[in-house]
Write a structure and sequence with these properties.
Length: 236
């Protein structure tokens, strides 16, 4: 009778090949004795996070209070600074400075914006980008508020059927890159390994009414293909 380890090794090799997404064209090759396969060990199995407070549950669109109804049905012509300021102010009030909904420094950063075009030279709100992410032919607003030169608040807004502006994606992170194509919004961020960056792919979920995470992958650092382009620094 074959030993349990002899049975486990081919299964493990197959799983590793499937995870990598590719295999040798000549088939799988033995890597030698990889040792005994152990089941995963669950850490802190009796400790679980508290449920989110009311209004903080993920997977829900959030109407931004204090904004005028948009009769045209899309975000074209809406001032990005007005939208971001109303959203950040409401989120800060809602989470009470805990940082669950928005970085606690965001309101202070917004105070740097003036009445000058674009909020002035010190305004941390990036120029808004219009792109149809819902597939209805009307454009959403993609906005970002830079917090400290590294961390940013990424926000996406749409106009609902009743004309109200709603936030359909809120994401805090180190925005190494943000890309849009064919209804997808991809967020590229550095990882602890400088050889790789993570790519979070969001697509419109009509049932939930938000941009939902559809795929999370690792990609090679751009320097691997372009040595002149430095890899993003790892760590906080």
């Amino acid at each position: 009778m074959r030993s349990p380890r002899a049975c486990a090794l081919p299964v493990l090799a197959a799983l590793l090949a499937a995870t990598a997404g590719c295999a040798d064209t000549e088939g799988l090759r033995s890597q030698g004795d990889l040792g005994v396969v152990h089941a995963p060990q669950t850490l802190w199995k009796d400790v679980h996070p508290a449920p989110p407070d009311a209004g903080q549950a993920p997977g829900r669109a959030a109407v931004v209070p204090g904004l005028a109804v948009v009769p045209g049905g899309d975000m074209r012509g809406v001032d990005v600074l007005d939208v971001v300021r109303a959203d950040i102010t409401a989120a800060t009030r809602q989470d009470g400075g805990t940082g669950r909904l928005v970085d606690p420094r965001a309101v202070q950063r917004l105070a740097l914006c003036t009445d000058a075009p674009g909020g002035g030279p010190d305004c941390p709100v990036r120029p808004g980008v219009l792109h149809d992410l819902t597939g209805n032919g009307k454009e959403e607003l993609i906005a970002a508020l830079d917090i400290d030169g590294r961390v940013s608040e990424l926000r996406v807004y749409t106009v609902q059927a009743d004309g109200r502006i709603a936030r359909i994606l809120a994401r805090r992170g180190v925005l190494e890159g943000v890309e849009v194509a064919a209804g997808h919004l991809a967020v590229r961020e550095p990882t602890s390994n400088p050889k790789f960056i993570s790519v979070s792919d969001y697509v419109w979920d009509p049932g939930a009414g938000i941009m939902n995470l559809s795929d999370l992958t690792l990609d090679d650092c751009p320097a691997a293909a372009h040595p002149a382009v430095p890899c993003p620094p790892s760590g906080p």
